[in-house]
């Protein structure tokens, strides 16, 4: 078996808060967007769902007026109030998606932007069975973005083609589509650089 994953699970999570230190128990999930690709970034499947609002999540939101405003504007709070899905159901759906494509433990790595520092610890906390399916390493397009910015006198990838900061819509599927699109742009740029070799 290959020592590297054959597939990538691109995930973006919308949450009502950031962790307090390393405590991710107070970072409930509001929405999950996921795209399954092969290692060459070809789309295979996708999934998105909103987690139903709980009292715990509502209490956390009340202490974060900026986040409340952001998620109200995106429509996520209303969608969460209307949803009956739990994290456990969404985790089961994601595991079923991987199973439908005959993917086993060790063949899938987590991908996205900021996934090592934020999404993966949240997944480990709230979706431990999914975390157990994933390789220990991640594919993080945010690292490419910062690395190329640090070593290049200009942006290698035009940031206006992707949504950052105030332009982000803060909906999980839209954000993960942007991260995957950015990865494909780096794939093309690197392909041009290494083609002669």
Briefly, what is this?
The protein has about 200 residues and is of the alpha/beta class. The chain has helices at about 55-60, 65-75, 75-80, 85-100, 115-125, 130-135, 140-150, 170-195, and strands at about 5-15, 30-40, 45-50, 110, 135-140.
Please tell me about this protein's structure.
The chain is of the alpha/beta class and about 200 residues long. The chain has one domain: Ribonuclease H-like superfamily/Ribonuclease H (Nucleotidyltransferase, domain 5, 2-Layer Sandwich), CATH 3.30.420.10. It contains eight helices and five strands. The protein has a five-stranded mixed β-sheet, with helices on both faces. β2 and β3 form a beta hairpin. The radius of gyration is 17 Å and the shape is globular. The two termini are about 25 Å apart. The mean pLDDT is about 90.
Task: Break the fold down into its secondary structure elements and pairings.
Blueprint: E1 7-14, E2 31-38, E3 43-50, H1 55-62, H2 65-74, H3 76-82, H4 87-100, E4 108-112, H5 115-126, H6 128-133, E5 134-140, H7 141-151, H8 172-194
Parallel strand pairs: 1-4, 4-5
Antiparallel strand pairs: 1-2, 2-3
> Helix count, per DSSP?
8
CATH homologous superfamily identity: Ribonuclease H-like superfamily/Ribonuclease H
Cα radius of gyration in angstroms: 17 Å
What is the oligomeric state here?
single chain
Biggest sheet statistics: 5 strands, mixed
Distance between the termini: 27 Å
Identify the overall geometry.
Answer: globular
Strand order of the largest sheet: 3-2-1-4-5
Q: Percent helix among the residues?
A: 40-55%
Question: In percent terms, what proportion of residues is strand?
Answer: 15-25%
Ranges with pLDDT <50 over ≥5 residues? Answer: none
The ordered H/E elements are EEEHHHHEHHEHH
**Class by helix and strand content?**
alpha/beta
Return the CATH class: Alpha Beta
- CATH architecture descriptor text: 2-Layer Sandwich
